[in-house]
From TrEMBL:
The chain crosses the membrane at residues 12-30, 114-137, 149-176, 192-209, 296-322. It is found in: Cell membrane. Signal peptide: none annotated. It is a multi-pass membrane protein. Its main location: membrane. It comes from Streptomyces roseoverticillatus. It comes from the Bacteria. The lineage of its organism: Bacteria, Bacillati, Actinomycetota, Actinomycetes, Kitasatosporales. PANTHER family: DIPEPTIDE TRANSPORT SYSTEM PERMEASE PROTEIN DPPB-RELATED. Belongs to the binding-protein-dependent transport system permease family. This is ABC transporter permease. The keyword Transcription does not apply.
Amino acid sequence: MTGYLLRRAAGALAVLLVLSIVVYATFYIAPGDPARLACGPRCNPEQIAQVRAQLSLGDPVYVQYWHFLQGIVAGHDYSTGTAVLHCDAPCFGLSYQNNQQVTDMLIERLPATASLAVGAMAVALLLGTATGLLSALRRGGITERVLTWLTLAGTATPVFISGLGLLMLFCAYLAWLPFPTYVPLTDDPEQWAWNMLLPWAALGLLESAKYARLMRSSTLETLAEDHIRTFRAYGVAERKLVTRHALRGAVAPVVALSAADFGSMFGGAVLTEMMFGLPGIGALLVHATTTLDLPVVVAVVMVTGTAVVVANIVADVLYAAADRRVALR
């Protein structure tokens, strides 16, 4: 297992290095002038030249990339014209719009995105695994047909449709819940939970359909294995057979996929954040893209990519823990 973890960690570092090269080349070496974007449309050539010198854009490309990596790992010093501003690692630079450290902007937005990702994943796992397991155990009956159609409908329904339907039903028609307004967990945990219920449900329902289909197929595959048939031939009760022997093998792919999906939620839940007004990383990315705030875009892409890579490592470890044969490959 130790060797397996070391191999996965080395592979993750290589992937992150390649990601940093691609991101830097895409946003900083592509056609365009970062100095003009950072300075603004009203800057004269002298001001643009000053900004270019402050950003070290006159250095060779490999030197600029090295400074980019150095800032992420060890921080960087930026000259604002009147003072030198130190940016602690991980440092992604200063925003072109407000001259604020991008890292501080990400830290400010991270709790909202983390709240959405954790809650939506919990809803997706609970609902998806229960639905998939019930559909597999009721194979061939009316219950399986109904659940199969529901999961297909859930997969085909965009999040803005399900979110709008939940808002109209629970906020406008039934008036059971207030229209969501993000409240930090540290300020009021009860209001935080009440205002996050609909975003969790909108994104969780969409994801649960995928887990339901995976859980159903995985359960049917596990129940058809030889050792399960042997236990059944010896008279082991069906409930005990499922809960003690079949469930662990069936749920392993679901756990592995959920760990990988959790990382992608940090940057992929843009529509949900925009619809419910959540001040998260996805909404920050949309705003930075429309204003061409390159440091913010680069930072969000790097953070999201890192989250996906780390989540995939966690998924591999969880799968290896469930199936010891994986760790030996």
